[in-house]
Amino acid sequence: MPARGTATNRQLASNRQLAVGRLTASSRQNVDGSGGAAADDMTFLQSLDLASATTFSAISGAYRHLEIYYVARSDNVAAQGLLMQFNGDTAGNYDYEITQFQDASNNFIGAGVAQTSMQIGRLNPSGAPAGSMATGRIWLPYYSTTTQDKCAIGMVHCIDAASSTFILLQAGGTWRTANAAITSITLIGGSGGFAANSSASLYGIT
């Protein structure tokens, strides 16, 4: 019998779970049941300085999902919603719902049906503390399919006016044009434009 404490009865590297047995990108299962050589990889596509209405254009259909990250502020004294349109469509093909969490007595739920854009976030007003920016993220799953309506989900942390009231807003919307892949995304600063230093970046996810 080997002496106690010798290498022969210790747990050796050959008996451990090796890297080859761990979950790798090539062995993940995608939503559609297929494997993916580079599942969940994120690729930077475009970055834009936001103006009154700013468009990510010529979006490739080579990815499974899209994500947008933004920091933004309105040039309007009143708080504004961040609006979104696809493919230049300004007809009443957008539905959305928002839930705003502020404090125990000032939460809010709102919705729009058959609108000309969807609200997907919110912007700090010009009266908010200097330097403060709404910071948000937008998810666009399966944006390039041509067999289903396109949906978007947004989340943003922002400040309402000079009172420094913090707000967390969640939004979800649908573009009711099932036969069109998304090839452009326009962000609109509500009833006004975007203040200086507002920007957004677009990423593709495989």
3D structure, described in words:
The protein is mostly beta strands. It has strands at 42-49, 53-56, 65-72, 80-86, 94-101, 108-115, 118-123, 134-141, 150-160, 165-175, 185-188, 199-205. 0% of the residues lie in helices and 44% in strands. The radius of gyration is 23 Å and the shape is globular.
Gyration radius (Cα, Å) is 23 Å
The class by helix and strand makeup works out as: mainly beta
How many strands?
12
Order of helices and strands: EEEEEEEEEEEE
With helices defined by DSSP (H or I, 4 residues minimum), what is the helix count?
A: 0
Sheet with most strands: 8 strands, antiparallel
Shape assignment:
globular
**Biggest sheet: strands side by side, in what order?**
1-12-3-8-9-10-5-6
What's the structural blueprint in terms of helices and strands?
Layout: E1 42-49, E2 53-56, E3 65-72, E4 80-86, E5 94-101, E6 108-115, E7 118-123, E8 134-141, E9 150-160, E10 165-175, E11 185-188, E12 199-205
Antiparallel strand pairs: 1-12, 2-11, 3-8, 3-12, 4-7, 4-11, 5-6, 5-10, 8-9, 9-10
